[in-house]
Amino acid sequence: MVSKDQRRRQLAREKYLRQQQRRTQQRSRARKRNAAIAGVVAVVVAAGAAAWASTGLGGDKKTTADAASTASATPTSKAPDPCAKPAAGSPGTKQWKSEPSMSIDSHATYTMDLGTTCGDIKLKLDAAGAPHTVNSFKFLADQGYFDHTRCHRLTTSNIYVLQCGDPTGSGQGGPGYTLPDENLKDPAIAKGTYPAGTVAMANTGQPHTGGSQFFLVYKDSPLPASYTPFGSIDADGMKVLQKIAGAGEDDSNNPGDGKPNATVVINKATVTQS
Fold this sequence. Notes:
Elements: H1 4-55, E1 110-116, E2 119-125, H2 131-142, E3 149-150, E4 153-155, E5 160-164, E6 193-194, E7 198-201, E8 214-219, E9 221-222, E10 229-233, H3 235-246, E11 249-250, E12 257-260, E13 265-273
Antiparallel strand pairs: 1-2, 1-13, 2-10, 3-13, 4-5, 4-12, 5-8, 6-9, 7-8, 7-10, 11-12
């Protein structure tokens, strides 16, 4: 038979062990909870970063972007479609294994005319600053690559751009080759803003991954100097862009970033030397 002191010590030891067990279980639950929270945060952060870096202004192999944050989203109630019906025809499906050989004169002036369902948008191309890009766009336009393609993305929150150049309309299409980044030290974008009127390449968020997708900036947009600027939009083209932006976007999945409500189709794209 145990003494009262022994029994008291035994009960104290059992109580201590139960307390230790409870503390261990609490620590284990806390670790699991914190790990779950960290995982959620990591997913959210990764998704946000991917949205800005690739889909945000992503293109060709969309992950893009790189979608815009909704913190200062511009209200975009659906307005009547301000554009005409597309011309008869469908986008091409041709692909190329490598970038076309250089055929432009980098000292000459080139103009790209986007004949869209919403009006003509004329672009002055910077062959001196972005010769590979301009050469590729002339090649693709001559091949009819952009004809009958729909501009698939309009952002109206934090960044303000219309994205085009994907025959698939999915944000994942491209010509089969990629282009080197160019003109990233252009003083116009050096301070982290792409000014209204800029034409620039979309990419996957990684260097040298531009293809055929491009974006037209209709309002000053804070973006890192990671997207090849290769031209500017004329005054009449800016009016067309404002009309498109005014119709808003389909923001059911991501407010401030979606398909344009306007039926923006490039009926015909041409690049000419002037």
